[in-house]
Amino acid sequence: MCRHLAGTASILTDSSHPRTGLAKLVLYTSLILIAAALLIAGRSEAAVSANVSTFSLQSTLSPEIAQRGALQQRFHEAKEALEVEDIDRAYELLRLLAEQGHIDAQFMLGIIYSSGLGKPEDMTQAAHWYRLAAEQGHVDAQYNLGVAYSMGSGVVADSIKAATWYEKAAQQGSTDAQFNLGLLYAQGDGVSKDMLAAAKWWYKAAAKGDAAAQYALGLMYVRGDGVSQNIDEALKWWYLSASQGFERAQTALRELGIIVIRQ
Length: 263
Description:
Elements: H1 28-60, H2 63-83, H3 87-99, H4 103-115, H5 123-135, H6 139-151, H7 159-171, H8 175-187, H9 195-207, H10 211-223, H11 231-242, H12 247-255
Helix pairs in contact: 2-3, 3-4, 4-5, 5-6, 6-7, 7-8, 8-9, 9-10, 10-11, 11-12
């Protein structure tokens, strides 16, 4: 059975104006006038400099960049609404963003619909939003869409499509997707049975600490499926799995008289 779901820029414009002074009383009045003129000129120059700097900054903000910033601000507001459990506000913001193609908003809408978070559970809608995010490369959306196809949740069950989406997510490093893809290869479900491929994907997940993949890889070393039989390797992976509390690995080692203290 498959595994389930899972700047601010500032501009500081400084201007310094050296002060000059002569100690001659006869020039006192003239110097005050000169100093005043220089101060006014300096302020004008600073103002022009600030305006030019501001203009230069604004001129670099293309409409696309400005729009992207606005979208990110709305997404931040949606996350804040979720944190205070204002689901209706979060939903409205996420829906607007998702319809404009915001990848994270699309994924979060899928989560809301699949979990029934403040909305009636709707797996068809969940799959719809997962697909849109997955097609843009969102790794968790790709994995969740694979689960949807594996389970027939919101879509017609299709193990071939499940394998396709698992592989996309697995290629991006999703350990859950790597484990499920290995399982499909081991079972020949949606793909041709290939124990070498199963071992490959389970190894990737096991190496990153996935307890179930570690157990499965150990079993392959015991049987010599997809790898050369190697009991020492099997025990190594089972021990790593058991130390994380994975029950099947603990049972396997217990039957061999090996007791594992959970880490």
